[in-house]
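Handout for the seminar on molecular recognition.
Each group receives one record of this type.
Step one: identify the two inputs.
Step two: read the structure output and locate the region that could contact zinc ion.
Step three: write two sentences on what you found, then compare them with the reference statements printed after the record.
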Amino acid sequence: MENLIAKNKLILEKEAQETREQILSLSRNSQIGSNPEDESTESEIDSNTDPVEADLKTRLNLLKQALRRIADNTYGICLYCQKKISAERLRVFPEADSCVQCQAVART
Ligand SMILES: [Zn+2]
């Protein structure tokens, strides 16, 4: 489990970085003159945001939350039932915040 968390941390950091770059390149194309280094734009989703950018921001938030859970030592624990998420699932979805059962309930 320890190795998996360490490994997933690297994956999550890399994906967060890539997602952030995609958001920046999108906003560079759509808003000429805005500051691409402005960190405050990434957590706020306003109604004018285009859907692709909104998706990327949602994803970035998931990745960040997963990284925060690693830092807090709550990573791999289901947010809904507090049971451990299987290592198999975390291998496929490093950003998973719920177990298979709760995910199924939440998505239907
Ligand atoms: Zn659960």
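Reference statements: The chain has a mean pLDDT of 86. The chain is about 60% helix and 0% strand.
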